[in-house]
Amino acid sequence: MGRISAxxxxxxxxxxxxxxxxxxxxxxxxxxxxFYKVSREIADIRPDTIIIVTPHGPMFQDTxxxxxxxxxxxxxxxxxxxxVKFRTKIDMDLTDRIIQLAEEQxxxxxxxxxxxxxRYGVSFELDxxxxxxxxxxxxxxxxxxxxxITYGLLSKIQLYKFGICIQxxxxxxxxxxxxxxxxxxxxxxxxxxxxxxxxxxxxxxxEIKRLLEEGDVEGILSMDSVMIREAGECALRSYYILLGAMxxxxxxxxxxxxxxxxxxxxxxxxxxIEKNEEKSTKGQGNKAGSLIDRIIRKKENEFQNKNxxxxxxxxxxxxxxxxxxxxxxxxxxxxxxxxxxxRNEKRGVFVSLKKNGNLRGCIGTIVPTTDSLAxxxxxxxxxxxxxxxxxxxITLKELNELEISVDILTEPEPAELSQLDxxxxxxxxxxxxxxxxxxxxxxxxxxxxxxxxxxxxKAGIPPDSSYxxxxxxxxxxxxxxx
Length: 482
What we know:
The protein is α+β, with helices and mostly antiparallel strands and 482 residues long. The protein has 3 domains: 3-294, LigB-like (Protocatechuate 4,5-dioxygenase, Chain B, 3-Layer(aba) Sandwich); 308-405, Hypothetical protein ph0010, domain 1 (Glycoprotein, Type 4 Pilin), CATH 3.30.700; 410-482, Dna Ligase, domain 1, CATH 3.30.1490. 37% of the residues lie in helices and 24% in strands. Strands 6-3-7-2-8-1-10-9 form an 8-stranded mixed sheet. A 4-stranded antiparallel sheet has the order 12-11-13-18. A 4-stranded antiparallel sheet has the order 14-17-15-16, covered by helices on one side. Helix 3 (92-104) packs across helix 6 (156-173) and helix 11 (290-307) packs antiparallel against helix 12. The two termini are 50 Å apart.
């Protein structure tokens, strides 16, 4: 059986290479020394394959990217060192198995080949998030194949589960593997650094370093979202995958070096792991699942306990969004609490999400697009939470902070200006293929003129042009405010 023999968290500052730094790298000598220590350890392991997760390869919103080509190369010409070149073979069998297992878990993995890279409009070459660790490893050992992964902007749970897929694939393919999570901590540590200073930067670096040292997975997955955003880091998603690849083990991180004197947090860390039999999950095909499943169940129970007393329409919207966030796919079954009317009627539906009184997502359908009101709510709840282009997707951590409302639309009817009332009626304006809709009884929309202007603006219809007007009413089911 294969195994991941060692795990590392490594930064990737190009300046650390003497060909790039040209003497400036001496300021982070502790980081250099730690890199060489890691390289010697890897040489002693003599891995068949090194898996590197990087933030700087082809980046996608909804999928991880994994190189699937016999070999890949790159150089440091972007950093004025074109003579520093790399060429490495890809472990195609392990790559294929990782992709297969990810797809079984409904985690999209984009295969990056020379042709697909052109199609996606991305570069097909090694990135510095990969080449900097390779530079030091290759000084000591270069008889390995590579699995090259760029994390996507997926949820932390999906990335963690992707790490579990990696662990299982390594075991099945009988590889001796070293896992490297490439990433830098806060880029906002000093006022004259590469990015604007933030007091959250040092706080984030201290917190993630401590949690990794303590092996506190739940703590890492529960870190404050504001602190993460303000820190300006590129390592955390690599770490989520790293944690998944260690699932089923107790671990402690050993900090080999940490420096932030260039304004960016450079953490070099190795991990000591021990098998925890109690965390093994029978029948799942891997040692893991237990920790992340426990975290998921806890969040599901917390949300469902809060959600259970709500109106069935609002409850269904919340449960559908929660299911998607946990499982990465739409809920197919209709829960037993859904009423007969919800199962049998067909209506247009809008689902609105607010957080702290501010809109966080709103998507709907003017006329039904599914076979029941229940299905319409389920579909539009996920659309509002994940695919509203005005907002970042909802995260699992936000669920308990959301206020959810469901507006069920009556059949639209033609209307004259005199027949509109923004408190009672919603409005639809149409001109050719352009359509704009505004729900009734919205805060700050008190006049017919304001209602029409907003609807026209949403449709891209000039106010002085000719257009048709329809009105409709809604039955609104609202969430109680937290």
